[in-house]
Design a protein that fits this description.
The protein has 135 residues and is mostly helical. The chain has a single domain (4-134), classed as Alpha-Beta Complex (Sufe protein. Chain: A). 50% of the residues lie in helices and 10% in strands. It contains eight helices and two strands. It has helices at 4-11, 16-28, 72-83, 90-95, 98-102, 107-110, 113-116, 119-134, and strands at 51-57, 63-69. A two-stranded antiparallel ribbon has the order 1-2.
Length: 135
């Protein structure tokens, strides 16, 4: 599994169009999310595209997220967000500054505000989920 650092090492060397392609490829590489899990309960509010995030617990208590979007770039963004927290314990997720982990990608400058407006909501949903499981 790639890390955020691995992805950024490639991302930093790319031109804008290739960065879009890299995000799209990250989204394509996401584990498939069954349509039955794409419900109102798993929908991330406040995104211009539809984004769904579903948590599952591993036997050791770590959280594994399934995610999908109906927009290729947005699917890549949620894939990037998940790289910061995938398969971590709830307490680890709560201790992770996801915004800081994503900061090197400078998504606000690379993408339109329509594409990035939902990122805080994606992060908030993941943090709220981790808080529920940590309790």
């Amino acid at each position: 599994m790639q890390t955020l650092e691995d992805v950024y090492a490639d991302y930093a060397l790319l031109e804008a169009d290739d960065r879009y392609r890299q995000l799209i490829d990250l989204g394509r590489a996401l584990e498939p999310m069954p349509d039955a899990l794409k419900t109102d309960a798993t929908l991330v509010r406040g995104c211009s595209a539809s984004v769904w995030v579903y948590p599952a617990t591993r036997p050791d208590g770590r959280l594994h997220f399934l995610a999908d979007s109906n927009a290729a770039i947005t699917k890549g963004i949620i894939a990037l967000v998940l790289l910061a927290v995938q398969d971590c314990a709830p307490a680890e997720i709560l201790a992770t500054d996801i915004d800081a982990a994503l900061a090197p990608f400078d998504l606000g400058r690379q993408l339109s505000s329509n594409r990035t407006q939902g990122i805080p909501n994606m992060i908030a949903l993941i943090r709220e989920t981790a808080a529920r499981y940590a309790a």
